[in-house]
Amino acid sequence: MCGIVGYTGRDQAAPILLDGLSRLEYRGYDSAGLAVRDGSAPAEVVKATGKLFHLADKTDQGRALRGQCGIGHTRWATHGDPTVINAHPHVSGNLAAPGSGAGDSDVVGVHNGIIENFTELKEKLLRHGYVFYSDTDTEVVVKLVDYYYKKYRIGPVDAITRTMVRVRGSYALALMFRDFPGEIFAARKDSPLIIGTAEDASYLASDVPAILKYTRSVYYIDNLQVARVSPGQAVFFDLNGDETAVPLTEVTWDAAAAEKDGFEHFMLKEIHEQPAAVRDTLNSLVKDGRIDLGAAGLAEDTIRSLTGIVIAACGSAWHVGMAAQYVIEDLAGIPVRVELASEFRYRSMPMAAGTLVIVISQSGETADSLAALRVAKERGALTLAVVNVVGSTIAREADLVLYTLAGPEIAVATTKAYSAQLIAMDALAVEMARVRGGITGEQYDHLLAEMAALPDKIRRVLEDKERLQWFSSKIVNAHDIFFIGRGLDYAVSLEGSLKMKEISYIHSEAYAAGELKHGTISLIEQGTLVIGVLTQGKLFEKTVSNMMECKSRGANLMGITVNGNFAVEDSVNFTVYVPRTDEHFVPSLAVVPLQLLGYYTSVSRGLDVDKPRNLAKSVTVE
Ligand code: G6P
């Protein structure tokens, strides 16, 4: 989704803004722009469509834009096509020609989110003589701020709060006012925005990695708050315009973790960081050899009183939910429903007393997951967030929070955050099972030992990557790939299929193996690749049979199974083995070859692995 950066300090702003934007590229975008002002001179606005280097070229790597205060934006089109004129920043006056300066505009701004009532607001502003040059909702907000600013002759903070009361939707806004050189004003509701301060400079960004290089002192501006940012300082206000305190947080993420570290792509680096992500997440949940959910605030009494669990999430986080349901039901005996957050928010699911709603989200900002969380709270459910980004909106609004420790994830296609979520949910399942008497003490110790051994086993799976690289070179021209499995293997198939399609652009589908013959099998042709996940003892024969049904219709078969199941090679053309572990936890291992397969296929096809077309890392709109 859109990315916002801002800088005010002693250095030239444009190169810092471009650097920040490049660190937000992973969020997905189709155009970009900068507004920079030199002292009290009006802002210069430059925008370009396509990749960020076009904007860098247009501004001579930022050198052509002089000034020490500025804002920047990468846009992921919602209202209006991805054109230069629709790209941000937008101005309160008339941006006569693309690339021209802000001229006599009093307000210049960038925005992430969607303003739902922008048509109605635009009509109001048209009646007051405003002229619009773009199709965006952002231009409407910037002009509305300008309208209140002039009509009531109030300061920027009051003009912004009036605007906030008037607009519906979501936004993170960064604005500069002509009369306030060296200052940036920011506001947010349901879209991410952070403010970092250093000695003589301040930074704004949609996400921490954009500013890690400069500072670790960060303010998480809250919903419906306004910030007035000057070099080295940020002051916050509530909707009434009254000053309010926001705590300064020290970010512990390693700056190097947001760099590629010698890997060709962030995705490959993050795949290799999975042993650490799983180990760190598990270690944070285990104290003195026992799972301890104290930090998450989940009391044993609460666990005992649960009547059901609803898991709501999007994308890969939803796939984690799909896997977790089998583990929780099997070990703890609690009924689990897994819902796509985008669907859950619009259905009237009765919520029985004792329901725990778990929202899983890497970013903690996904709009649908946040909405699902709010719906769950409104219906009286206890809510638990499993989130990677500390201080994110979902983490702040949920009753309970369990943090995954994957560190910053940059590649759009998630890998290490998925694995960290999986182990967190496994630990939760094992603890619920212990508290509710679903397992013996011996089983508990065994499960804990198996979880602790996973990081090392993931490392062993990674050692097999050359074979996967070789196999991916054979499938680069595939039209369709089908991933099949049953139970937990089905959950892994869902993630494997998503990894493949989102970065290689090869059509793929995941099916519960038994469902294939109810329609999809008619798509199997000579040479169609069918990948079977075969890690669950009880279901092994059944899925192999389904694969054979495909083979007899011409399919080329790949299988993923656990060490020792060598007989599978009689039926399957290419086999990948993962180390044995307790069957509840095999997804942590089986997913890795599938991530690698998607990765290498994308690389073989010469695609932009880390930033696949049309996708965004953090989807902050509905
Ligand atoms: C986007 C990302 C996915 C992610 C999903 C949910 O689609 O590309 O990788 O799984 O959003 O994101 P979240 O931050 O809520 O986990």
CATH architecture of the largest domain: 4-Layer Sandwich
Portion of residues in beta strands equals 15-25%
Query: Mind describing the biggest β-sheet?
Result: 8 strands, antiparallel
Chemical compounds bound to the protein:
6-O-phosphono-alpha-D-glucopyranose
Task: Categorize the overall geometry.
Answer: globular
Summarize the structure.
The chain is an alpha/beta fold and 622 residues long. It is built from 18 helices and 27 strands. The chain folds into three domains: 249 residues, Glutamine Phosphoribosylpyrophosphate, subunit 1, domain 1, CATH 3.60.20.10; 199 residues, Glucose-6-phosphate isomerase like protein, domain 1 (Rossmann fold), CATH 3.40.50.10490; 142 residues, Glucose-6-phosphate isomerase like protein, domain 1 (Rossmann fold, 3-Layer(aba) Sandwich), CATH 3.40.50.10490.
Entry keywords:
622 residues, alpha/beta, Glutamine Phosphoribosylpyrophosphate, subunit 1, domain 1, Rossmann fold, eight-stranded antiparallel β-sheet, 36% helix, globular, binds 6-O-phosphono-alpha-D-glucopyranose
Describe this structure in words.
- With 622 residues, the protein is an alpha/beta fold.
- It folds into three domains: 3-251, Aminohydrolase, N-terminal nucleophile (Ntn) domain (Glutamine Phosphoribosylpyrophosphate, subunit 1, domain 1); 254-452, 3-Layer(aba) Sandwich (Rossmann fold); 464-605, Rossmann fold, CATH 3.40.50.10490.
- Helices cover 36% and strands 23% of the residues.
- The protein is built from 18 helices and 27 strands.
- The chain has an eight-stranded antiparallel beta sheet with strand order 3-2-4-1-10-9-11-15, covered by helices on one side. Strands 5-6-7-8-12-13-14 form a seven-stranded antiparallel beta sheet. A five-stranded parallel beta sheet has the order 19-18-20-21-22, sandwiched between helices.
- β23, α16 and β24 form a beta-alpha-beta unit.
- α13 (416-435) packs antiparallel against α14 (441-462).
- The longest helix has 22 residues, at 441-462.
- It is globular and about 75 Å long.
- The N and C termini lie close together (11 Å).
- The model has no long low-confidence stretch (mean pLDDT 92).
- The structure holds 6-O-phosphono-alpha-D-glucopyranose.
- Residues 314-317, 361-363, 366, 369, 412-414, 615, 617-619 line the site of 6-O-phosphono-alpha-D-glucopyranose.
- 6-O-phosphono-alpha-D-glucopyranose binds next to α9.
